[in-house]
Amino acid sequence: MKIEVKKFGEILTSRTEGREAYLVARAYLKPVKDDEPVELDFDGVKVLTPSWADEFISGLRSEYGARLKCLPSANPTVIASLQIVG
Amino acid sequence: MTHPQRKSLERIAAAYAWAVSLSPSPSHETIAPTRDVFRGRLDRFYREMVSASGSEADSSLLTAVAGEIGNNCFDHNLGQWRDDPGCWFEWGFFLDKPVTWVVLADRGQGVLASLGRVDTSIHTDQEALDAAFSRILSGRSPEKRGNGLKFVKQIVTGDSKRGLLFLSGKGQMTLGNLGLSAKTYVPDLASGENVPGTWALLLWEKNYEN
Question: What is the rounded CA–CA span in Å between residue B144 and residue B136?
Fold first, then answer.
């Protein structure tokens, strides 16, 4: 399953919005199979901060563990934020 | 000094005066009173930066830094405002140089009051700022937070054409090659006025290489 992060917005900066995005993703975006990878596609995201990413990714990681993957991005804020969030 | 240059200095001084004043000031249109308003202005800020610089990558980084600092105003001060709620968010350009300036400030509780609660070894404004920019530590314990200002530091120091002056209480943090330049734009900084909340001036020179 691929999650297009840009569908939550192009400018993603606050923790409150990241938390809300996680809750929506958890409710409505579910992989079909239990072992299906969950890929985060940041294509189209203009601005990402560690605060938004931390709430969103940490939440999804608690659901999907190692099945969660972040696809490569050329956006410098996505790269820097993912490095910090881990 | 050109008129736009003088205007920029006046606006930076006005933001500083608002942050250090003892009593609430008349309402300013530069203040985003809620996070939603701040969010809307941040979107406009990004579009203006792209239009001015022609660089999506550079504008993206600048917006992320402004977003982290501005969102902190709300994250750490809801229910803790001294009087005027919100974040002063204003920007402009020094036209004699291709430098964007951004001011973000609040009349909240300040960094020491926030971090001193979760780490009792922090006693001064300077210690609080040093910790905020170097350690994974947040006043919103037990939530796992505290990486936003480390991100700010990483981005600002990641290019020689950037700088940040961050004030809280009597503490000062300067980052990046333009950080010391930022000090020269603040009236009466040497007199050590107390900034009860936070006040930040970001300088960002246009990067033609991106």
Answer: 9
| A73 CB within 8 Å of a chain B CB | no
Using an 8 Å CB-CB cutoff, list chain B residues near A16.
35
Query: What ipTM does the predicted assembly reach?
Result: 0.94
Report the SS3 class of residue B197. Answer: strand
Is 70 exceeded by the pLDDT of residue B142? Answer: no
Per-residue DSSP letters for B9-37? HHHHHHHHHHHH-SSPPPP-TTEE-SHHH
CA distance to A67, B72, B75, B198, per residue, from B110 (Å): 40, 11, 12, 6
pTM for this predicted structure? 0.94
State CA B175 to chain mean position distance. 12
Quick one: CA dihedral B75, B80, B86, B92, positive or negative?
negative
Alpha-carbon gap: A82 to the closest alpha carbon of chain B (Å): 11
The C-alpha atoms of residue B112 and residue B198 are separated, in whole angstroms, by 10
